[in-house]
Specification:
With 546 residues, this protein is of the alpha/beta class. The protein has two domains: 245 residues, Alpha-Beta Barrel (TIM Barrel), CATH 3.20.20.80; 164 residues, no CATH class. The chain is built from 17 helices and 18 strands. The strands form four sheets. It has a nine-stranded parallel beta sheet. The protein has a five-stranded antiparallel beta sheet with strand order 12-11-17-14-13. Helix 6 links the parallel strand 7 and strand 8. Helix 10 runs parallel beside helix 11 and helix 13 packs across helix 14. 49% of the residues are buried.
Length: 546
Amino acid sequence: MKTTKRLWRKCLMILGTTGLLIAAANSETSVTQAQASSAQGAFAMSYLYFGNSSSYTSQVDKSGQTLDEVSPSYFHIKADGSLLIDDSFQASFVTDMHQRGKKVVPFLSNDFDQALGEKAIDNRENLANQIVQAIQTNQLDGINLDIENVGADFRDKYTDFVKLLRDKLPSTKEVSVAVAANPTGATTSWIALYDYKALAAVSDYLMVMAYDESFPGDPTPGPVASLPFVEKSIQYAIKQAPANKIVLGLPFYGRYWNQDPAADGAGLSAQTITKLVNAYQGTVRYDTASQSPVATFSIGPTDPAYSINGKNLDIGDYTVWFENEQSLKAKLKLVSKYKLKGTGSWSLNQETSDTWDYYSLWADGFYFTDMQKHWAQADVLAAANRGWMLGTAADRFAPDAALTRAEAATIIVRVLGLTGEAPSGSASFRDVPATHWAWQSIQLAKQNGLIQGISDDRFAPDQIMTREQMSVLLSRALHLTSQSGGATAKVFSDVPAGSWSAEAIAAMSSYGLVDGYASGTFRPSASLTRAEMAALLSRAQPLLTK
């Protein structure tokens, strides 16, 4: 819970047993959705605060490939405004993350202590030097500043603090700033500490803390981050700073209310809320106005006790506002809607395990429900973000459907960036009229010598693409030969040396792009699935973008 921090210290086998994938089967209408410059998709970071620091690596690993960066609670402020490095710091964690290709950018917190925050800002020259030294000494990747509850009269000084850090650190090191959500454009109170425009100019991004709409001590039960609150916070942010420097902060926690005013708005992790609802046979409804779930449950005198942070919950009725898959998906959609840099979250290890099944898909703007938990999700996202492959519908990718020849032609044309229009009088196949959705791509592929018909006048657009046909198509597109590969091509018992696809399969094998089965066969006539095609493209990508 964000405000808890304020209250106390914070095989893949390509063309093997799996296979391949392609663009939308017969849908060219969603091409514009998938136009992105790289396969990385939206940026994703998360704060690390709860749990034992020795378990941080396992916490991150639960998120799979989703996170680009983690921000552990390593940096705090001493009473004199100097840097305190938390004893939770572990050099081995930094090494673990770097081995996984993830950045480690610790956050500097004043733990919501106004006096500490003011002292840090006034001591900014010395503090900046200490932070720079700590980053360099410990092979960290930058600094995330999270100074909160400091009045607006420190606004310019705080911006200067951030500028000092940016000037002192090399450009390869990140300087980012957590800023309070400001949906109403407030110019007073600590929310106005953050000069969005000026801060964005001297930092890599602003992490907008679009949560704590309800807060500890709030007597009225309500959402942690209603969709209107979040969207208004984004709209304010992008008026002040470039959208590609805005990271949307999402909550992995909720808040509860019962008959004890002292507990009003106390925080609970999403994991704990799920356990409480199940343990006490609670109910959950979805509030459509706020796009937030609300749980209610009761603890009776004979019910087993439930302890939170060492204290048993009181007997009585509970109302809990929190986040679930439906509410988080609604917020994640805002990333692509407003073309934001990406997302941040408070905080890792509070989310339910299924969060990562959909997180990247929705953040990247691809709402494929059939890709949740699918083995090829990362490959499909990479292909979709590059604009190489699309869905068969807004909410479906059909990963296990067989790839067709029309789809194969379309995806290769996209991958190679072939453009132009076939001459209006150019010869076509009688089974691919000019009204066919893939007519243009098929013509371009044929004109560039990439694919031929099954006869002089027939293309068979809906016929499945076989493993050997795709090997031939890609080897032509990449200009591969078995002699130019980096390894000796494998010999497959069912691919005769003189067969029409033997050289292409050998070329693909020598580059490590295709593999066979344990039986020593290649199964050249077997079909490919759309998911398998995406996986093949991921493996071939370094060659495709040379």
